[in-house]
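User: Please predict structures.

Assistant: First:
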Amino acid sequence: MTLTPRDHELLETLTRRVRMLSVRQVASVWWPMTHSTETAQRRLRRLEEARLLELHRINAHPPLQADSPLFAWQPGDNEPDSRTVSDDARHRWNQPALPTDVCVASPLAAGLFGSTARGLPHQEHRDHDLRLADVFVRYRNQASHPAAVWVGEHALPKAGYRIKDPDAFLQDQQGRILRVIESAGRYSPAQVESFHEYCAELSLPYELW
């Protein structure tokens, strides 16, 4: 099949930006005038037939609002209250899971785009990944923060043995890191502290979502 620019951007997103998107998210980004999940689904099936992505139906928490991060920090700010941030992160997951149609990159697409993102994530990571995808969609649709500078962890070398790679970086055109983006999921206080220490040591501004 012949890939359109929209197909190319979608596949690049699934391999180099986030590793999973719901069909709802795909429609909101690439079919914004109609938000047609039916139109998105038809094109996604064509890409699945070409072995470039996979479609799955999973159980996932209903989407959370992506209006503002749980906590944002930059050098010179006070460190987070890890207990409060953790409580906020955990208490928001309070609705029953719903059947959700999602897409992920295939091994073929991952190889073509030089990524390790392929296939469906483990069940315990799926809410986390869809939350990150909602944040990506927010940035993607904001002209002041083009998603072209969003680089996901699966497009980068591993940070090191037993080191938690941040979910994504926002970079300028010269590759300088402007901000670290992290989906906090259900972070414990210790995880909040560990992430903050990592960013503070490298003087990296960050947002926890």
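Second:
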Amino acid sequence: MNSSPNVVERYVSDLRRYARVLSAGRGDADDLVQECLARALARPNFPADIRNVRAYLFTVLHNVHVDQVSRRAETSDAVDFDEIAGSLPQPAAQPAAIELRDLARALDSLPEEQHRVVMLVGLEGLTYEETAQVLDLPIGTVMSRLSRGREALRRMTDGRQSAGRRSAARA
């Protein structure tokens, strides 16, 4: 059997990607992943007693994030991202960048419950069962949140897509 670090190594980039969704910056995301891996590797008999290592690691990452958010809520020296968002540089005006920005904004405007499910299923490619396990939810709740989240994203991005289709039809 492979040693624990070798088993975990293939999931690090997936964990980093999801950690960036959960956290404010790359450094925070790396800290989340590091703490996740430290907790997972500290578990006795890891990974022998884990049926789905990837889903387990995402669950640990999610729980580490929840722990950190709870700790930060107790302190008042954190900077609110929404307060400084206007002063941050904006992406270039190329169409693809604008579409990505619009999609990111639409994703950010989703309720947190829908956002997490959409990201785990859509970006990370987790199954409904794995997502339910990571978020500790019934599978029906995952399916419902995913459906509502996708529908909300369609509504928010439909105006941009419809306008694009109209201009393409004129050409």
